[in-house]
Specification:
single chain, alpha+beta, Heat Shock Protein 90, six-stranded antiparallel sheet
Length: 165
């Protein structure tokens, strides 16, 4: 994954705003589909206000991309604004995950076909990795959002502040 040039970022105006449980679930499902998932499982606790969990069997996130997987303006899908003309995906993982990190505690567990085991990442409000540990989950991703959101590409979110519920 690479950081997009400033000129491309300005053209995209891709500042995602998470306003509801629905918007979180939509973004996580789109990430799963973009990762080639043929199976996506969504679980909500208390209608998604306590926890959102999305698990898929997609390609997973490469370990080398993990440090920037939820950082705004990072993507592996395009290099410049010219690439937008041929884009065939739903969006950019870093934009969606970065926005979700702003409103929830996020855990992401992921494994690619090349990995021997999955890794669970705990992300901070800026999308940076706070901690990581091995996990037993299979290939794909699992996102978990606590206090409202959870994503399993393997991931998790914190609850929304009362004013946003």
């Amino acid at each position: 994954m690479k950081q997009l040039p400033a000129a491309t970022v300005r053209l995209l105006s891709s500042s995602q705003i998470i306003t509801s449980v629905v918007s979180v679930v939509k973004e996580l499902i789109e990430n799963s589909l973009d990762a080639g998932a043929t199976s996506v499982d969504v679980k909500l606790e208390n209608y998604g206000f306590d926890k959102i969990e999305v698990r898929d069997n997609g390609e997973g996130i490469k370990a080398v991309d993990a440090p920037v997987m939820a950082m705004k303006y990072y993507t592996s899908k395009i290099n410049s604004h010219e690439d937008l003309e041929n884009l065939t995906t739903y969006g950019f993982r870093g934009e969606a995950l970065g926005s979700i990190c702003c409103v929830a505690e996020v855990l992401i567990t992921t494994r690619t076909a090349a990995d021997n085991f999955s890794t669970q990442y705990v992300l901070d409000g800026s999308g940076r990795i706070l901690s990581q540990k091995p996990s037993h989950l299979g290939q794909g991703s699992h996102s978990v959002t606590q206090a409202g959101l959870q994503w399993h590409h393997l991931g998790s979110l914190q609850p929304l502040p009362p004013k946003l519920k």
